[in-house]
Design a protein that fits this description.
This protein has 2 helices and no strands. By secondary structure, the chain is mainly α.
C-alpha cells in the first residue's frame, strides 16, 4: 500500500493541490526557459 500512497502523493504534487506547487511551477518555468534558450542556440 505504500507504493499506492506514493503515487497518490505524486498525483497531488502535479495536480496543484500539494504545498510544493510553487516549487514545481518554478522548476517547470526554469526548464521551459532553458528549452527555449537551447532551441534558439541550436537553430
Amino acid at each position: 500500500s505504500g507504493h499506492i500512497e506514493q503515487i497518490s502523493m505524486w498525483d497531488r504534487f502535479w495536480d496543484g493541490t500539494n504545498p510544493w506547487t510553487p516549487v514545481k511551477k518554478a522548476c517547470h518555468n526554469a526548464i521551459h526557459a532553458i528549452n527555449e534558450i537551447s532551441n534558439e542556440v541550436y537553430q
